[in-house]
Specification:
Radius of gyration: 19 Å
Strand content: 5-15%
CATH class of the largest domain: Alpha Beta
CATH superfamily of the largest domain: Aspartate/ornithine carbamoyltransferase
Structural class: alpha/beta
CATH topology of the largest domain: Rossmann fold
Number of strands: 9
Length: 307
């Protein structure tokens, strides 16, 4: 693997599949001392529940240690230049996990840090979420290649990483977005390149029901991400008709599973009660953030020793 994970495109197919299988193994095996003596810095500009706790517990269960630094403590690019933070922090810790507003911030951190930098969310991608998503699909369906994943909603950072991750491992990717909220063309073209190389296909539409037809997995995310709150009313209007409900799930395959990266907003992108539908695997998906990140940390900090 490369030194850093800033994008799903930092992985090739073999590496992505190996991480998923390693995560399954680590989930079964439980705690270890693999990363004893290692320290991970959690450098966050945005609030978090799953990302913060899952990375902290991943290090703990591998025998390592984590240090959390809030926005107020660091002031990335304000109190101190991002490059200087990277050069200083890398003298103290073995890896840096960064959750930022701008993707450029994680890129600068990686450029100036000799230790691995992990993108725990930026405005462009959310690669750690997508690794957990692949793990969940592999766990529930027994395979990845040949399945169809339908994404309904905003062409945001989660959608970007999910597109690349799915196409990288041979999963067909179907996405329905309203006009004006599509995937960025460059990202879409990269996904299509991965699909062509991996034997899958990409389909785009503005009709959610067309997207979910014959889908093995239906996936959605919030309509309004952090930092977009002023657009909330406009987005709720634009995404009218894109709410995932039981009727939409019924239009997919009979054994479809439903996924969401959380936090969810019932009454907006999902119908009330959908998280408790028997087809929902959302909380298993949330748990799998922990196991996917254990595999990632092991690969970056103890390569060849993962077991």
């Amino acid at each position: 693997m490369k030194k850093d994970l800033l994008s799903i495109s930092d992985l090739d197919r073999k590496e992505a599949e190996a991480l998923i299988e390693q995560a399954l193994h680590m989930k079964r095996e439980g705690p270890s001392s693999l990363l004893a003596g290692k320290t991970l810095a959690l450098l966050f500009e945005k609030p978090s529940l799953r990302t913060k706790v899952s990375f902290q517990m991943a290090m703990h269960r591998l025998g390592g240690h984590s240090i959390y630094m809030s926005p107020e403590e660091v002031g990335l690019g304000k109190r101190e230049p991002v490059a200087d933070v990277a050069r200083e922090l890398s003298r103290y810790v073995d890896a840096i996990t960064a959750r930022t507003f701008a993707h450029e911030t994680v890129r600068i951190l990686a450029e100036h840090s000799p230790v691995p930098v992990i993108n725990a969310l930026s405005d462009l991608e959310h690669p750690c979420q997508s690794l957990a998503d692949l793990l969940t699909i592999r766990e529930k369906k027994g395979k990845l290649s040949g399945l169809t994943l339908a994404y309904v909603g905003d062409g945001n950072n989660v959608a970007n990483s999910l597109l690349l991750a799915a196409c990288l491992v041979g999963v067909n990717f179907s996405i329905a977005t309203p006009q004006g909220y599509q995937l960025e063309e460059g990202m879409l073209n990269r996904g299509k390149e991965y699909a062509a190389a991996g034997g899958s296909r990409v389909r785009t539409t503005t009709d959610p029901y067309e997207a979910v037809k014959d889908a093995d997995v239906v996936y959605t995310d919030v309509w309004t991400s952090m930092g977009q709150e002023k657009e909330g009313q406009k987005r709720r209007h634009a995404f009218s008709g894109f709410q995932v409900d039981t009727r939409m799930l019924d239009a997919a395959k009979k054994d479809v599973i439903f996924m969401h990266p959380l936090p969810a907003h019932p009454g907006e992108e999902i119908a009330p009660g959908l998280l408790d539908d028997p087809r929902s695997v959302v909380f298993d998906e949330a748990e799998n953030r922990l196991h996917a990140q254990k595999a990632l940390l092991a690969r970056l900090l103890a390569p060849g020793k993962e077991g």
